[in-house]
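hi support,

uploading two proteins for the ticket. first:
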Amino acid sequence: MSFIRNLATSVFSYMYARSLKRQHLYKSKKDKIRNDVVDFEIDENVGLEVYWKILKVAEGPSLIFYAFGYEILRFDTYINGQGHCHIQLIECQQKCKSRLFLPEKTVEQQIERAIFELEKNLYYWLQRHPDSQIRKLKVDRFRLRIATEKAKKKMLEFAKKN
């Protein structure tokens, strides 16, 4: 990890390096909090991941848009109205919050919002990513639509089952 940290801090901004470290730590514990993971491929190295997330404070269906090994957007939908998304931005001030809360109160409404963001605002979020490969990424709208429909169905299934 120290090699990655040294490289990241010498090349990238402090906040991005910190984000990479958090992502690395998150990946090591993700198996404990992610159940019933389902992957919906959009293109090679691009897709959606849906799973049931269990934390001490909340649980609910989650959705990740990933590309080339990066988690670009993650939507955590929770029954208690604390649904939010995590967005990897180019640069963030040191005291920046790592999530953006969703105004929707129910899990079903939060799922609708997540799908809306992916279908309507994906390029807005992609253009703010630190990696130029992600900023230049072109996602086939038809394949994205198919994947989001499948993801929505699975998330609603998780929400009803639990």
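and the second one:
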Amino acid sequence: MSQGDLYAAALACLALGAAGGYWFAARRAGTRAADERRMRDIELERFAEQLAAAYAASPVAIFLTAEDGRITEANDTAVAMTGYSRAELLARSIQQLGFWRGQPESYEQLVVRLLKGRVLHRLAAFERRDGARRDAELSITLINRDDGRYLLYMVEDVTEQRRQSAALRESEERFAKMFEISPNPIALIAEDGRIVEANPAFLEASQYGMEELRGRTTEEISMWADTGSAERFRRDVAQQRDAQNVETVLRRKNGELAHCQISWSGFESSGRRYTLLIVTDITELKRRSAEVDRLNASLEKMVQARTAQLQMANRELEAFSYSVSHDLRAPLRHISGFASLLGERPSVQEDAEAQRLIGVVTRAAGRMAALIDDLLAFSRVSRLQMETQDVPLGELVRDIVQEFNLASPDRQVRWIVHELPVVHGDRQLLRAVLVNLLDNALKYTRPRATAVIEVGSGEAGDMVAVYVRDNGVGFDMQYAEKLFGVFQRLHSQEEFEGTGVGLANVQRIVERHGGRVWAQGEPGKGATFWFTLPRAQAAQSRVSAAARNVPEKPVLQMQESMAPSDPEGRYKL
């Protein structure tokens, strides 16, 4: 019965049950019913408007399709989600958007299920206008209208959510795998301090099984041998504070103690707070550290003992130097003085043989004095404190050459001094090296009408290689190793004067600078003496590494015209 019929029946009852005054009551009842109908119509219109607004503004895509799948309505969200215009959507079917590809049932089977009054929910995929495939969640229901049956689709794009879920799932799987295979013992502890999970490394280190640990606190398994660390751990977990590399002592199930570094960090998962406890066993490291400390202490004692021995040796050397300087020089002065006085006697002056013998004594005393001076200089080289600085070798060589020219004005010497680098070292000691080598070059070129002495340099890795070359008498290379020994000489005193200490001084000074010295030569064709020094910019590293072995065959790079002869090919130029 319609609403109008109900009102009509009500009026009829009122008319039959009363007369006169009842007529007025019936009239009022009819008026009230008409007002109520108008109010219901207004409410229905308002509700329809609200539904239309919700439909248009819904964040969920809404499609209305005919029973065969033709799209008849689509809201703005559906237009934006698919990339089609509204007109393009209304010209397509829901099947053409790809929602049914890969589904376990056909579209027709779906409609049959919907006709039974069911609301269907499922995951599907659709294809945007640009060809991109997107994931979606569908809710589908059947609605009846005056003009027929329709399917209402509510579609939510869940591509990003599914991607995030997959990424989260992969991250959890990675974490679980890392947790499982980590060589460090790791335990997962709940907010109340009870162990939730432990990895195999933790089980092995603690010697507990998982069932023995799960649900128990670290205190209940007597893990802490250091009560201070236990208290700090409890306090930090309660106050949600993290800690890194706390050194402590932990106890295994069998009572054995282990020195460890522990770190803990809190995090939240599914609304609950957990603490990740990571343990690093440093027992072996501590043992080795103690062994290193013991060895260092032993080494320190050895160094102190060796230092004391060296100090004693230096004192003895100083005493020896004093003895040489005073006790040996005094007799030499007496010998020279008495020989001179003896030579002034008339009887001796008339005796040629006596004069010759006195000359032999005087020269021998002079050589002995020179030898003493050289020995003292040799001993001082090792004891002198080096004062290193950047030293321009070119300036040093020019000063020394000028001094030699003034000392020997009658010598015909052709000096060839190439541009020389700045090196780092003790200026006075480096001057002694150059004086010795240039003096030797002058000495052994004495038989030549014109001496040619060349000074140049090349590269030897991070060092500078300097050479002094002459056209003197040279030497046989089979004796090259003897050149730098104390008192080692390749020529007799009658041929060339000297004590055999100068080149030993050169070698000692160069080695104190972290370099090395060597020589090349050939009888009658001159000699070349090489030595290496740290360049200015690499000074500190080289001087500090002075004890390091210098390569036996340095690689040198220089201008071909500057390179001395190398008949045996010992050095690559």
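thanks. also noticed: Confidence is low (pLDDT under 50) at residues 1-28, 538-573.
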